[in-house]
């Protein structure tokens, strides 16, 4: 081995050590959160040898609800109590409103220029305001009611076709995913890429291909985000994969933008119910082209697809799995629907406010199986304290919502599925946080609740459901960006006799 090689190897090995020494020097004399013993260079990464939320729950039971770990050279603090969550998102809310910079943020978030990844500042505020106004305001949500109802009807029609006489085994995941992707895509670009009636089959197939890759890559963790040396050598070719995926997504989203741009040339006004997210962004681009660039639009299209689709669909799938294991809950929900709606029509979105038990089922599902078990990472923009412990600027802060939702000190009979616990509960406080809290909490929660509520209510109202065998559905978490069920859900489905005449007409 020549001297140059030796120099580079020692340099790469020493660098994480230098980072560590620098970090430890900065932390000297501070009151740091408890932490398990660590290993040089990798820190505590070796401890995360299963589902992170489960491993961390176990560690917190030993080291406390505010626990410090080190993932390679990156300090990480885990929060596992409602009182610490409250402190994070009230007293420290602004300080914690930053996101850590990860490699995926460079490529899939166009250098952190999306609402989900941007640091707390003007760009984030502008994007958040635009989304609130153009996608999530009551008026905008109302204007898209028809889209959601059409998509849910299309799901129901599909199931009706497959199971109108006898109990038939149906696969649920792909159907529910199609529903939530179509709804979000209609809001973004007035297009649908799943199910029947697709206009451009080739574009739809390209979309599904891009989306599969996006979820696969963004669901995988990148060791290079924690051990800089691995980033430099592009360990496991992660950066190359991201670069390739970025190009693919970029081409796809550019085409969506260009199609809307062309359409807009022929029309004179931005008014109307079918104004999409891309329309709204292009209209802003006309007045500030250097700020609202195509790259900003493309990044945010991808963010909405990542944040707003699987989150709702995995929750509907978990809810259906729970209902199959709890027929008494299913029956009670059906009675609520029948009592309120009767036999002559299908449930509509406007009915949801009068169907509180359906919302209780959704809440209880989100409690036991939050789609983002560790929420989304935060990063303090300056040194702060949480629970009396010092947390340095640049530390990654993660909240273990999954563990808080299952904590027996916080919830009675915490592991049981009991939707009625949410009845008459005015405010769940900081112990129920499936959508996060504070400034960066999920802006899509009302949309998600409408989609999940209408889909679930329609599935319950129109069909009888049974498990495929006597055995309970296994409620095991799988891997992914959101927390899916291990195996795609299958169920036995049959049209309810009293609904047959209505379903025949849709
Ligand atoms: C069951 C459904 C959903 C769940 C459980 C969920 C959960 C979350 C969570 C935990 C966060 C991070 C909060 C934090 O930083 O602490 C988040 C952020 C976000 N969600 Fe959702 N979400 C859902 C549906 C949606 C939908 C339907 C959309 C939009 C179409 C959406 C868009 C976003 C965006 C843009 C952010 C980033 C906000 C920011 O950083 O400022 N989500 N969501």
UniProtKB/TrEMBL annotation:
It is a single-pass membrane protein. Keywords: Heme, Iron, Membrane, Metal-binding, Monooxygenase, Oxidoreductase, Transmembrane, Transmembrane helix. Heme binds at residue 442. It holds the Pfam family p450. The chain crosses the membrane at residues 6-25. Its cofactor is heme. One of its GO terms (molecular function) is monooxygenase activity. PANTHER family: CYTOCHROME P450 82C3-RELATED, CYTOCHROME P450, FAMILY 81, SUBFAMILY D, POLYPEPTIDE 5. This is Cytochrome P450. It comes from Helianthus annuus.
